[in-house]
Structures are given as C-alpha cells and as structure tokens.
Design brief:
Layout (H helix, E strand, L loop, with lengths): L27 E5 L5 E5 L23 E3 L10 H11 L12 E10 L18 E10 L14 E9 L2 E8 L12 H8 L15 H8 L5 H7 L14 E2 L4 E4 L5 E10 L8 H10 L3 H11 L5 E9 L1 H5 L20 E11 L4 H5 L12 E2 L4 H18 L73 E3 L10 H8 L3 H16 L4 H14 L1 H11 L36 E6 L5 H13 L3 E6 L5 E3 L2 E3 L3 E2 L10 E5 L2 H7 L3 H12 L3 E4 L4 H7 L7 E3 L3 H4 L8 H4 L4
Parallel strand pairs: 15-16, 15-20, 16-19, 20-21, 21-22
Antiparallel strand pairs: 1-2, 3-14, 4-5, 4-12, 5-6, 6-7, 8-10, 9-10, 9-13, 10-11, 11-12, 17-18
Pfam families: Catalase (PF00199), Catalase-rel (PF06628), Catalase_C (PF18011)
Protein name: Catalase
Organism: Sphingobium yanoikuyae ATCC 51230
C-alpha cells in the first residue's frame, strides 16, 4: 500500500512563507464612516493581522483615497492607492482585467449645436464641425472568450480624434457605478470575477463573493437596481444608452467653468432582452452583439447616437439632496433636461480586430482644452489607473504610436526611446529648456500657455483644500434615495424583472448571512421589493439595515424606464420568417419586402439550407431551423402549408421556435397552416399573435401584457 506524504502547500514552499497573503480570521469591529461607508477595523492592533501594503506598511483606511479636503482632488502622494491600483492594473497578462470582451467600429462625430458660450472645446465651436471617432463596446466581468449576452454592465468608450488632440469619453451603458472611491475598484472587480479558489463562475455576478461585497457596500445599492434591471441585458449594442458616469467640467474662453454630464442617446431607442432570452441567445450565438453590430454596418444600416449634455453650476449643485461628485448618483432628466449637441455615426467596421479593437487604449485623462475633471474620487483614481495599465497590456510606454491610438493631429515632445519605439527623432533636443537654436540646431517644441490645456483653477466645490485627509464627504452618505427613485420609476413588469433577477442571483449565493444582509439593504429601497425577494427565496425578512443618512423621497423619473420610452417600428430590427417545401413564395416575398421597406431586415429560416421547391418556384433559406432559434429575431412570421406544419410539429426545434417567441413576448405572425404548431407550443391568441397580413401594422414590439400568463415573476 502506498503511503501518502505530507500535503504540499505552495505558499510554504518558498522563502516568503511567513509573508504570503492568506485569508486569516482576526477579530474586527464594523463601523460606519462619515460617508456611510463600511469600515472594518482590528480590535487588537497589536496582533499580526493588520492589513499592509506590499512593503509591510500598515494601512489605516482601505476605503478612502487621500484627498485635499473632504470633497477635494486625490493626492499623488497616496502611495496606498497607487500601489493597490498599480498591482490591480497588472494582474492579467495580456488580456484586459475588465472590459476584456469588446466590439469596435469606426465612425464620425458631428456637432449639431455649437456651444462656445460654455466650452472652448474645438469640436463644439461650430455647428457642422466633425472629427473621426473609434468606439469600443464591451462587457465588464467576463474574459475575452466569454459570451456577449450575460447580465452585466456594458462599456461605452468613444475616442474622438479632434484637431486639438484625442478626447476619450470612457463610460458605460449605466449612468451610475457601484462605488464612490477608486480605492475600492480592485475589491469590487475581485469580488465579481471568478472566485479565486475555484475559477468560476465566468461572466456572472450570481455568486457569494460579489453579493458579500455589495451587501457590505450600501453605496452599491443604486447600481444594483440598474444591474438587476433589463438595462444589463441589452437587445443589441445599437440599442443601448451610453453615459460618461462622472460629473466633468466645461470651461469657456473666459475661464468660466460649469459642470457637465454626458449622455449617448441611441437613435433606434433603448431595447433589452428578457433573462430567459438572453441565456438562450448565449447558447444560440455567443457573438450575438458583435455579429449584430458588424452586420448592421456592413449592410449600410449605420448605428447612430445623439450626444446630449446636462449642464449646471455649483449653485444648483449645492441645492441638491445628493452630491454631484458622487458617481453612484445621477441627475434626473426632469430636473435638467438632456440638451442634444452632436451625433455619432458608426460607418466602418475594423480591418483587423487585434490591431484595432484589441489594441485600442482609452484614457479618461485624454481631454482637450475646454473639458476638464472634477474632484469625483472615482474619476480621480481612473486618471492614474488607465494610463498605468497600458504598460502591462501593450508592453510599452509607446502604445500611443499604435495607429488606433495615435492622434490625427501633430504631436511633439521631448520623450524618447522606450521599448518598441517606432519613431526616429532627429537631433539632440530631448530636454527643455535648451538654447540649442543659438548654435543653429533644432531646439524642439515649447509650451503654448494661451492655447494649451489649463486646468480649472477655481475651488468652487465646497471644499477646503488645506485639509489632507482620508475621509468621505457626508454628502456621499445617502445610498438609498436614488435607488428607490429608479425602482419606483419602472413599469410594473420592469419592477418584477428586477425582483426576479435579485431572487435568481441570491439563489446562487450559498452563504445565508449574505442573503439576509442584502434583504436588509433592500428594505431601505422599497419594502415591497424586499418582500418579493424574500418570498422568492422563501426566507423571512430580516430587520432593516440602518441608513447612514435619511432617505429623501425623489420624484419618479420616466426617463429611467426602458418600456416607458420604447420606440416601436422596424428600424434596426430583424424578423425571422419560417417557410418549408410548398410554402407560398409570393407571401414570403411580400412580407420580406414590407419589412425591409419599413427599415427592418429579414432572415429566412427553413428545415433545410438549400433551395426548396415552393409555390411559385424555389426559395433558399438564410439559416437552418435548428441553428436559427427565434431568440435571434425581434419578431417572427411563418408561411407553411398544413402538411409541412404537421411534419414540423413533431420536431422540437420548430415547436421551441414558436414557444420561445411567445415566452419572450414577441410578435408572432402566422398563416392558418401554422396553427397546429402554435397549439403544440401553447401559443394563445393575443394582441401579438396575429395573421401575417397584420405584421406590418403591429411591428416587432414586445407584448408585456402576455408576461404574467407565461412566467412566474417575483
């Protein structure tokens, strides 16, 4: 009998055995900071369980970066923040740590309304001014090999190649974020990524560590409402909004500054999937969003977004019940309407995915004169992090020379050499000041104080910059008012989707105390929501978690609802038409012509891929039935002879084709011959189950009144 030796422990087999990071279980006390953040502190500071940096320096506050005043900018001397972000930025080789799965395209941005009175940014000085752009959409949590349709935040990053240099507006499809301070970003992403010991789940937040983290971060509750809503499962990249998330600044020629929030409004309107549909889409086509974007551009159906802004001053900001520097808050459009000032159109696919989509590097620090930063502590950390991470991702400080990253205007400086230097600077002017011109040599470029970038100098953000502190402003402490506003602004079945999503996610959480803590937070948002989630999990409601600041009842904002702002019609939508041998070719072509004339596209589906004999000749499908499920389409139609329908009714793929479309509340147009399949699929007649002749009148909209009959929702 073989005898096993002592178990190996990789952490003990090197010279740093006593210094290896481990879980540990020290006694600690949980407190609430000035901004309502969770602080966990050692009870016995003499123990060896203190949190330190990589050089053994004990850390006093792991929640807040060091700022010049409670609402001030983050200080470069914060070595704890810089080390934490530096290590996080270089954890993965060579894939992006977040936003790894991306889709990109080229386009053009055109100013449709000049605003020189509020900003000197060159692109907004004249109506009709334009510049090339590159846009990258992405999921956040999954790796590059994951799927397009998980429940996740989507990145929405736009690189403007302006005459004044590159401007990178790096945002998301949700206007708020999980955390208030960049100090917590590594912790957030560590929690939502695959669990460290087991390497799963991939591209999913439905697991213990994520919900443990957010349950201890009440500031996350507003973002949780968005992430559990249909916003996190978009129908396509062409049908989602984009947001700059932070409050930025506009500065005009006189040096006057105002706050600005950036919005991207899709011309096609905002549309989503339902959860069951998103899951099945991932199986049917893992590249669903990427393919949809590519094919739309290739066919000349160019996606477009209007750029809108919310502009306000410090006096208005000071009167609000929330802090405009807090990235977990938004400004309701009813309070400050979004003013449209430009249009983005994507009109060219990439020539090479790796060279462009994969190598593109977006930097929030890339701004042009007339656009500036604020003291938002999440933004302040991003200004360091994005530049720092490119050294690991792209291997060189010269990543700006990669064509997709290079500006399209001249650039000159004294920086030289470095790995993969492709430029060949001439002369010896690599420092400044110099007087080489006095010896007849080129002396290099010099600063331009009047036209160069200058930061907004006013300290108009209710802050004393002489204070140096790790603290969160008390104005950041209200974590529930806007979460409640978002939830109450949804339609009845949108609220049911949110409750059902939380039930699903928490059903995957193994630790009971985490589920209870989430429920205790939800009670601060809405008692009905908390009760629905508790009922869905079959557990009793715990006591309400104490709130750091009293909730403020905010008016409902209809702009926050997808369904209240839905755009019906065929533009940008795809209709699947099922036919088989003997089908009426004239009817198929009539439906196809009508949909395409209305701005939609048609995908023909049949049991076989080759030419089939039909009434009136032959017809060839675009896709085979069992490889073209109805989740890929916005509406379906069928043109079948009774004998073909009889045969198809015995095939699971055909029955499921109609069952899924019905279950996902889509329009189903059909001929009389299809009825046998509809009966077998359990499809009941309603406003969205119609004769083929009515398809153009009804369109591809969702029929939400059907949902209570087909699905149990929390």
């Amino acid at each position: 009998m073989a005898v096993s030796g002592p178990k190996s422990d990789a952490a003990l087999e090197n010279g740093l055995a006593d210094h290896q990071p481990g879980a540990g279980s020290p006694d600690y006390e949980t407190m609430v900071g000035e901004g309502g953040e969770t602080q966990q502190r050692l009870q016995d500071e003499r123990s060896g369980d203190a949190l330190t940096d990589n050089f053994g320096h004990r850390i006093a506050d792991n929640q807040n970066s060091l700022k010049a005043g409670a609402r001030g900018p983050t200080l470069l001397e914060d070595f704890v923040l810089r080390e934490k972000i530096f290590h996080f930025d270089h954890e993965r080789i060579p894939e992006r740590i977040v936003h790894a799965r991306g889709s990109g395209a080229h386009g053009i941005f055109e100013c449709t309304k000049a605003i020189p009175d509020v900003t000197k940014a060159s692109i907004f000085q004249k109506k009709g001014a334009s510049c090339p752009v590159f846009v990258r959409f992405s999921t956040v949590a999954g790796g590059a090999g994951s799927v397009d349709t998980p429940r996740d935040v989507r990145g929405f990053a736009v690189k403007f190649y302006t005459e004044a240099g590159n401007w990178d507006l790096v945002g998301n499809n949700i206007p708020v974020f999980f955390i208030q301070d960049a100090m917590k970003f590594p912790d957030l992403i560590h929690s939502v990524k695959m669990e460290a010991d087991r390497g799963y789940p991939q591209a999913a937040s439905a697991h213990d560590t994520f919900w443990d983290f957010v349950s201890l971060m009440p500031e996350s509750m507003h973002m949780i409402m968005w992430a559990m809503s249909d916003r996190a499962i978009p129908r396509s990249l062409r049908m989602m909004e984009g947001f700059g998330v932070h409050s930025f600044r506009f500065i005009n020629q006189d040096g006057d500054g105002k706050f600005v929030k950036f919005h991207w409004k899709p011309v096609l309107g905002v549309a989503s999937q339902v959860w069951d549909e998103a899951v099945k889409t991932a199986g049917a086509d893992p590249d669903f969003h990427r393919r949809d974007l590519y094919e739309a551009i290739a066919s000349g159906d160019y996606p477009a977004w209007d750029l809108g802004v919310q502009i306000f001053d410090e006096a208005w900001a000071a009167e609000q019940p929330y802090d405009v520097l807090d990235a977990t808050k938004l400004i309701p459009e009813e309070d400050i309407p979004v003013e449209i000032i430009g249009r983005l159109t994507l009109n060219r696919n990439v020539d090479n995915f790796f060279a462009e989509t994969e190598q593109v590097a977006f930097l929030p620090s890339n701004v042009i004169p007339g656009i500036d930063f604020t003291n938002d502590p999440l933004l302040q950390g991003r200004l360091f992090s994005y530049l720092d991470t490119q050294k690991s991702r792209l291997g060189t400080t010269n990543f700006h020379q990669i064509p997709i990253n290079a500006p399209k205007c001249p650039f000159h400086n004294m920086q030289r050499d470095g790995l993969m230097q492709t430029l060949v600077p001439k002369g010896r002017a690599n420092y400044e000041p110099n007087s080489l011109n006095e010896a007849g040599e080129d002396s290099g470029p010099r600063v331009a104080p009047e036209t160069g970038f200058t930061s907004f100098s006013d300290n108009g953000e209710r802050n004393d910059p002489t204070d140096k502190m790790r603290i969160r402003a008390e104005t950041f402490a209200d974590h529930y008012s806007q979460a409640r506003m978002f939830y109450l602004s949804q339609t009845e079945n949108e609220q049911a989707h949110i409750a059902s999503a939380i039930v699903f996610e928490l059903s995957k959480v193994v630790m009971p105390h985490v589920r209870l803590r989430v429920l205790s937070r939800l009670r601060n948002i809405d008692e009905d929501l908390a009760q629905r989630v508790a009922d869905g999990l079959s557990i009793a409601l715990p006591e309400k978690a104490p709130a750091a600041r009293d909730l403020v009842e905010m008016p409902i904002s209809d702009a926050l609802s997808i369904q209240k702002n839905a755009k019906d019609g065929f533009a940008g939508r795809k209709v699947g038409i099922l036919f088989a041998e003997g089908s009426d070719k004239a009817m198929v072509e009539k439906l196809k012509t009508g949909v395409e004339k209305a701005g939609g596209s048609v995908f023909l589906v049949a049991p076989k891929i080759g030419p089939l004999k039909v009434k009136g000749g032959t017809l060839e499908a675009d896709g085979k039935l069992d490889g073209s499920p109805s989740v890929l389409f916005d509406a379906i139609a069928s043109v079948l002879m009774p004998q073909s329908a009889e045969i198809l009714s015995k095939q699971g793929a055909a029955v499921q084709w109609f069952m899924d479309a019905y279950g996902h509340c889509k329009t189903i147009a059909h001929c009389p011959g299809t009825q046998i399949i509809l009966d077998k699929a359990g499809v009941e007649k309603d406003d969205g189950v119609i004769p083929n002749e009515m398809l153009l009148d009804k369109g591809p909209k969702r029929h939400w009144a059907r949902e209570p009959k087909i699905r149990d929702l929390a």
